[in-house]
Amino acid sequence: MFGVNVSPFLLSATIKHHIEKYREQYPAATEMLDTCLYVDDVISGADDISQALKISKDADTIMKNASMKLRKWNSNDQILMKTWEYEGLETHPLHSENNAGVQSSKVLGIPWNVIHDYFTIDVKGLLELDTSKPVTKRIVLQSAGKIYDPVGFLSPYTIKLKCLLQELWLRKLAWDDELPP
């Protein structure tokens, strides 16, 4: 149902319904699907390859039974990637090279270096502030909005911007008033 306001809820409720049917049979996979599913991405990990393989195969079974195919499985462990391929799970296509020449994939839109297992969050927008203009509430909000961090890696820093915005509202400053020192 496209264009219907309740569509996201219906998708979520449908997935939860199918997860609940398998909670006893596949406890680890249902827990992972229940807590690690973000829109259409599952972000999870495991202690070892055998555990990762079992959870992923069980999750694949659960979702196949709901006529929803899990695809683009990805890991920083090449043995697991080969095992998934051997087991018939659809793995992520060949990793692309980003502009720094690093093999990466994206998780929730965040570049993930699959070789060295780290995420890269682009904060260049913050560095491109025009310091020749006065800093205003509008500029602070624009700066806060330029940071894409759905997982919350930068929360210790972005919370400071949000607290500053709250303080600016409490001071009843207009959008384009220069901020006090």
Write up what this structure looks like.
The chain has 181 residues and is an alpha+beta fold. Helices cover 45% and strands 9% of the residues. It has helices at residues 7-21, 27-36, 49-65, 78-87, 124-127, 137-145, 155-170; strands at 37-38, 41-42, 96-97, 103-107, 110-113, 118-119. The strands form two sheets. Strands 3-4-5-6 form a four-stranded antiparallel sheet, with no helix packed on it. Helix 2 (27-36) crosses helix 3 (49-65) and helix 3 packs parallel to helix 4. The protein starts with 6 loop residues before the first helix and ends in an 11-residue tail after the last helix. The model has no long low-confidence stretch (mean pLDDT 86).
SSE diagram, text form:
Elements: H1 7-21, H2 27-36, E1 37-38, E2 41-42, H3 49-65, H4 78-87, E3 96-97, E4 103-107, E5 110-113, E6 118-119, H5 124-127, H6 137-145, H7 155-170
Antiparallel strand pairs: 1-2, 3-4, 4-5, 5-6
Features:
4-stranded antiparallel sheet; alpha+beta; elongated; 7 helices; 6 strands; RNA-directed DNA polymerase activity; 181 residues; two-stranded antiparallel sheet
Condensed summary:
GO terms for molecular function: RNA-directed DNA polymerase activity. The protein is built from seven helices and six strands, in the order H-H-E-E-H-H-E-E-E-E-H-H-H. With 181 residues, the chain is of the alpha+beta class.
